Amino acid sequence: MRIARFTTGEDPLYGVVTGEVDEFGQPDEDSVVVALAGDPLYVGVKLLDQEHKLSDVRLLAPVLPRSKVVGIGRNYAAHAAELGHDLPEEPLMFLKPNTSVVGPGDPIFYPRQTRELHYEGELAVVIGRICRDVPPEQATDVIHGYTIANDVTARDLQRSDVQFTRAKGFDSFCPLGPWIETDLDPQHFKDGVSVQTFLNGETVQDGSTADMIFDIPALVAHVSSVMTLLPGDVILTGTPEGVGPMEVGDEVEISIAGLGTLTNKVAQR
């Protein structure tokens, strides 16, 4: 089930996106979104007698984390190597504020404090219920679904500050979308699911979740052993190699097999 958050120009609504999709999860031109009675994380999936053509609505960030976005650093060996970092012995966590979240088509603002703004295409896990100390074998029980994220990073600030808060915490530094897929389970695919990033149409990242150092159950277990996770919290699972700079005017597309494509442009703040 693809759960979207959208607007027709009035108050935001939640809905279920229906219609055929291609191998990458992109819907066909006849797809519609059927409105829901409220946020399915809290009221369940209650369909209304109201539908809109997908092409007629504006998609928003599919989830607004009530408390936090938890990022995982250096979770792909090749990415750690390209930045000259050692591999972590356990998941490396950092936090992005929920104010960093924006949706499909929203601008990524280039702050004046940086000269080195990077894209990082990632698979994102959306938590479905309050949980703590989740064993790896029970991780799927607390996952609501998956979406696409761009863990935007001011790389020069990351180096100078050492810790990640400022480098990854600016407004607009966490695009999410286009929807949440509740039926996808990347762990069921032997070769993982592909994670690709395109900068102005050119492929710059081409990886697979199979290359993660710590898999999704391990990440959910580790994060929940430190902090209670709430419905709507998001875990970013790390980025493949190929990160690089974005400039004002650039368009970044992140495609994950089965999830579709998240597209944002860079604008001057």
UniProtKB/TrEMBL annotation:
Domain Rv2993c-like N-terminal: 1-62
One protein family per Pfam: Rv2993c-like_N
InterPro entries in the cross-refs: Fumarylacetoacetase-like_C, Fumarylacetoacetase_C_sf, Rv2993c-like_N
Domain Fumarylacetoacetase-like C-terminal: 68-266
Domain of life according to the entry: Bacteria
Gene Ontology molecular-function annotations: hydrolase activity
Keywords: Hydrolase, Metal-binding
Protein name: Fumarylacetoacetate hydrolase family protein
Organism: Nocardioides kribbensis
